[in-house]
Write a structure and sequence with these properties.
- By secondary structure, this protein is of the alpha/beta class.
- The chain has 2 helices and 3 strands.
- The protein has helices at residues 14-17, 37-44, and strands at residues 10-13, 29-32, 50-51.
- Helix 1 links the parallel strand 1 (10-13) and strand 2.
- The longest helix has 8 residues, at 37-44.
- It starts with 9 loop residues before the first strand and ends in an 8-residue tail after the last strand.
Length: 59
C-alpha cells in the first residue's frame, strides 16, 4: 500500500453503498445522491465522510 492509498476518498452512488457487496472504508466515502432528509441522517450516522444532495437548501 502506498502513502497515497491512505488519502483516497470514494464517491459512491447510493445504490452501490446499500449493496451487500459494498466493502470500502465508510469514513472515506461520500454517498450521492441522497435527497430524503431521513435517509441523509441515516447515512451520516453510518460515519461516512459526507453526502451529496440536491436539497441542501432545505435541510
Amino acid at each position: 500500500m502506498s502513502n497515497l492509498d491512505e488519502k483516497l476518498m470514494f464517491m459512491v452512488e447510493k445504490e452501490i453503498f446499500y449493496s451487500r457487496n459494498f466493502d470500502l472504508p465508510l469514513e472515506r466515502c461520500v454517498v450521492w445522491t441522497v435527497n430524503d432528509k431521513g435517509e441523509i441522517n441515516s447515512v451520516l450516522n453510518m460515519n461516512v465522510y459526507g453526502v451529496v444532495t440536491d436539497i441542501g437548501d432545505k435541510l
